[in-house]
Specification:
The complex is a heterodimer of chains A (about 500) and B (about 150). With about 500 residues, chain A is mainly α. Chain A has one domain. Chain A is built from 22 helices and 2 strands. Chain A has a two-stranded antiparallel ribbon. The longest helix of chain A is centred in the first third of the chain and has 34 residues. Chain A starts with a helix and ends with a helix. Chain B folds into 2 domains: about 55 residues; about 60 residues, no CATH class. The relative contact order of chain B is 0.12. The N and C termini of chain B lie far apart (about 55 Å). Helix content of chain B is about 65%, strand content about 0%. Chain B is mostly helical. The longest helix of chain B has 24 residues. The chains are: A mainly alpha (about 500), B mainly alpha (about 150). The interface between A and B is large, with 63 and 69 residues.
Chain lengths: ~500, ~150
Amino acid sequence: MDMLANISLGIGVALSGTNLFYCFLGVVVGTVIGVIPGVGAISAISLLLPVTFYLDPTTALIMLGGIWYGATYGGSTAAILLNIPGTPANAVTCMDGYPLARQGRGGVALLMAALASFTGGTIGIIILMFFSPLLASYALSFGAAEYFALMFMGLVAASTITDGSAVKGLAMVTLGILFGCVGADIYTGVPRFNFGTLELQDTISLVALAMGVFGVSEVIATVRNVHVSPIDRSSVSFRAMRPTGEELRRAGTSALRGSGIGSFFGALPGAGPSIAAFIAYAFEKKVSPRSKLFGKGAVEGIAAPESANNAADQTAFIPTLSLGIPGSPTMALMLGALMIHGIAPGPGLVVEQPSLFWGLIMSFWIGNLMLVILNVPMIGLWVRLLTIPYHLLYPAVLVFICIGTYSVHQSAFEVGLVAFFGALGYLMRVFDWPAAPLLLGFVLGPMMEEHFRRAMLFSRGDVLTFFERPISATVMAIAILMLVWGVISTIRQKRRARLEE
Amino acid sequence: MLTRDYRDIVGGGVLLCFGLWVAWYAASHYDLGTLRRMGPGMFPMLLAIVLAGLGLLMAVPAFFREGPKVQLRLFVPAVILLSVLSFALLIGPFGLIPAIVAVTCLSALGEEKFRPLAIVLLCLVLSVIAWLIFSVGLGLTLPMFRWPF
């Protein structure tokens, strides 16, 4: 009964005029930036973060959430029609989507992607609805040691699971936490690392860091590197969308399997929608009797990853909302938006802010429904977006990055910080350092320091306190296992690479 | 391919130096306190030491393996970053529209082809959009033009 009351509360909040409007705005913006290659959800969300200062926190999160899952919907369009993934989570969709489009069946591929996305999103939301409150009520008894352990595990997972070297990921997490240390010390108020400037006495602005490391460096990397090929318009007409009954049936079962896989990997810190899509595709290829057709235009090869990445988009909110621990940089930005409004993320959120929590979840349903409507009959409009040349697009992106940052505190200094972090982001690309762990470390850093110092205070300086309490000991053990495994596997990987030469 | 992985050697070296510098800075400028009652300098110093260690872990194995050739583009990053900096410098004394024009023109130099007409149109359109969204829509008090002299 409790659940029903919560659901109806959520529906009431989500269906209010303002929230409906911003949900719509969010999914439209998400679809647009998802369709256009070279602009990701992170840049769009950091761009719109300043706008959310003027909104109610629930409305703000509804809009930002819409961008996040809307981008994954839209990203499949570019993947299918151009063989360029609109967002990293759609990379696998290229493998079967593009061959289908080449056969003149792009419409079928787009329809399958939209329907699979909706299936994945729906299943992800159901899991989110049941697991978040459960996890949150369990987490209410957590102390400083448990929190530190959980954040530690989240950061280790985020830096070791992602592809590439675990050492580099860990280094970027550490660097991110160090950037988080800039500003007034939480216990004594002493300004740290401000180098005599007034502007850095407060913390580094999350908006400036995200815009620089993701937005500006993305522009730098994409300029001169995007070459768009012409699109066959007739393949996306409404008539070309009719799939055969057999295709629907086959895609249906793989969409269900993909949703399951996606829901699981989305909730894991550090995994997220891209990894979920890859695993769902690999799994589908393994169990399918028609695995030889994969890569040549099999509908299952679209349905599985597209349902998985959308399910993962939704379940990524489980650790974010119920523990206050984001598993990906986008989720970190969402938490940032909450904190800007003075709402402390954590297990208390579900109980203390029921209208925010349930309103947000119910808005996901509505947003997913809107996306199917946006992506099936109106696909022609989005396809036209693909023809906007990048040389017109990126100066506009830069202008909005600058104005957006400036408008937060009317501070030119923060725009300068964007340039600094843009330079850092470019250097990170040159050195092949991952950017996601940096942002995660930056957001979690201050919280980690607080919990670490509090735990040390309680335990009178005994570091072993993290291993004495059962929950934190288990979590720390998992984290250390991941750490050791990550470092060993990078060393091995490099050895193998050397042997192959 | 290069005989050594210079990318990771340089990258690890940079992190090592940066970590050591931050650790020194934290230890010499802020109170460290004790583990039980940590001062403002303790947490950053510990982290910086970890960062230096990770830099070392990155650099040392790179001496013993082959590495990829790194292509360093200088012009495009310089132009894009300068355009953002120009906004920061111009917005205060000159107002929003000169800042927008500066970002658009400078960043457009990053493309191979120079398209004067497209740039002029883009400046116009972006100025109008920015004015509509931020001044009319959100009601921010951003001066459009200003003359400091």
